[in-house]
Design brief:
Blueprint (H helix, E strand, L loop, with lengths): L5 E6 L6 H7 L7 E6 L13 E5 L5 H10 L5 E4 L4 E3 L3 H11 L5 E3 L2 E4 L4 H4 L14 E2 L7 H4 L3 E5 L11 H4 L15 E4 H14 L1 E3 L2 E2 L6 H12 L6 E5 L6 E4 L13 H10 L4 H32 L9
Parallel strand pairs: 1-2, 1-4, 2-3, 6-13, 7-14, 8-9
Antiparallel strand pairs: 4-10, 5-14, 6-10, 9-13, 11-12
Helix pairs in contact: 7-8, 7-9, 8-9, 9-10
């Protein structure tokens, strides 16, 4: 059986509207569509021979994405969320890009944000794909993205993992995350052989001893993006390109009941140091995340208190 060219992995949740399924299944061509549900969910996607549906052993973004990615058989792989919409021509775009740049690891899609419930923005007709063969390429070393905004591809360098540990994060925060490189994995088309190798690094890092494993619930995005680059690190290497506008992916804000509040990313990303302690960039990242824990905890309690006050407003005293 011939492997699909592109696998698209989506961690699901309950109550995804039928309109999303309808739009998702409009993706053209022989792609592999992988939906991963939390325990207890009842898969209810419309029938499509390209569709594979799994029930994750646990609830949580990391284990659901891992389940989908480990079952992805495509030459390339892309992960999105169940409130995001892809251009139906995404397979054609991926083919054209990797035919032109066969050594690339990654193609970063251009994304347009929409407010929750903005059906007009989400369902607007998709603009035709650009002529990939004739697109210019903007070097990340040029220090400007003006050509990228006018329609050129923008180079993506590998993350500068060999940076020395920057203790100044203690008083001014991180700075080495700035630039054209990427830390995150989602919303990008990646070469699947590299992804599968990086997943094995993560799975090994989760083993504490014997059968005991550490499994964070959230935040695979940066963990996987940096694990992949750490495993195959080559200083200064251009690993891919970022697409210009118009968008190839539309992202809708979460509904109110699924609003994300400050998650403690360090609980997932500490696994990076377990596998790759030689990189100063990762020590700065983890140090900064630990520095942010008390700040995020304080802000989280403040949000909860504000919600309690909104739900239980005090009754003003009545005048005698």
């Amino acid at each position: 059986m011939v492997a699909p060219y592109l696998s698209i992995v989506v961690p699901m949740r309950e109550g995804v509207p039928r309109d999303w399924f309808d739009a998702f299944l409009k993706i053209q061509g022989e792609v592999e569509l992988i939906l991963v549900y939390p325990p207890g969910a009842q898969p209810d996607a419309p029938a499509d021979p390209r569709l594979k549906q799994f029930i994750s052993p646990f609830r949580g973004e990391i284990i659901q994405r891992l389940t989908g990615l480990l079952n992805a058989s495509g030459t390339y792989v892309l992960t999105i969320n169940c409130d995001e919409y892809l251009s139906p021509a995404i397979l054609q775009l991926a083919r054209q890009y990797f035919q032109r740049f066969p050594e690339s690891w990654v193609l970063r899609l251009s994304t347009k944000k929409a407010d929750y419930g903005d059906e007009v923005a989400l369902k607007a007709p998709w603009q035709p794909l650009p002529d990939m063969a004739n697109m210019g390429v903007c070097s990340y070393r040029e220090g400007t993205q003006s050509r990228h905004s006018q329609g050129d591809l923008l180079e993506i360098p590998i993350a500068p993992l060999n940076n020395t540990f920057d203790l100044a994060f203690l008083w001014r925060g991180r700075r080495d995350q700035r630039g054209s490189h990427t830390e995150n994995f989602d919303k990008k088309v990646w070469k699947n052989t590299l992804v599968q190798a990086a997943l094995q690094e993560i799975l090994q890092a989760m083993v504490l001893f014997g059968p005991v494993r550490y499994l964070p619930f959230w935040c695979l995005d940066r963990l996987l993006g940096l694990s992949l680059q750490a495993k195959f690190f080559e200083a200064g290497k251009v690993i891919g390109h970022k697409m210009p506008k118009p968008e190839q992916l539309r992202s809708e804000d979460n509904p109110p009941e699924h609003k994300r509040q400050g998650r403690f990313y360090v609980f997932a990303e500490i696994l990076l140091l377990r596998r790759f302690p030689q990189y100063g960039y990762l020590w700065t990242l983890i140090g900064h995340q630990i520095r942010e824990i008390p700040v995020r905890a304080f802000n989280s309690q403040g949000r909860k208190l504000s919600q309690v006050l909104r739900d239980n407003p005090s009754t003003p005293p009545q005048k005698g």
